[in-house]
Amino acid sequence: MAKFLxxxxxxxxxxxxxxxxxxxxxxxxxxxxxLGSAVVDGGNPVGMSKTVLPSGKIExxxxxxxxxxxxxxxxxxxxxxxxxAKECPILMDPAFSVEIAPIIxxx
Length: 107
Hints:
Elements: E1 2-9, H1 18-35, E2 39-45, E3 51-52, E4 58-59, E5 67-75, H2 78-85, E6 97-102
Antiparallel strand pairs: 1-5, 1-6, 2-5, 3-4
């Protein structure tokens, strides 16, 4: 089995209402439960990023497609990884997407 990085893109606000937070966590837990042992690293949300440009300029706005978080999964191939990602709870919000990339073991 190969490992794949899911990078969640988009920007939005974390739920502030307790019921909304619980519903969001329940959706993620349910998805991870469905993926089972394919989840290598459940990942985490991330904060606002900075981007270093070739000129040395720093952008503090998260860039044009801000990263919202990540997960690492195992799958047969990238098509299997894509199929697994289609049920990701983050996709319930049309402002978000999931980028899937194979992890190339170098060491």
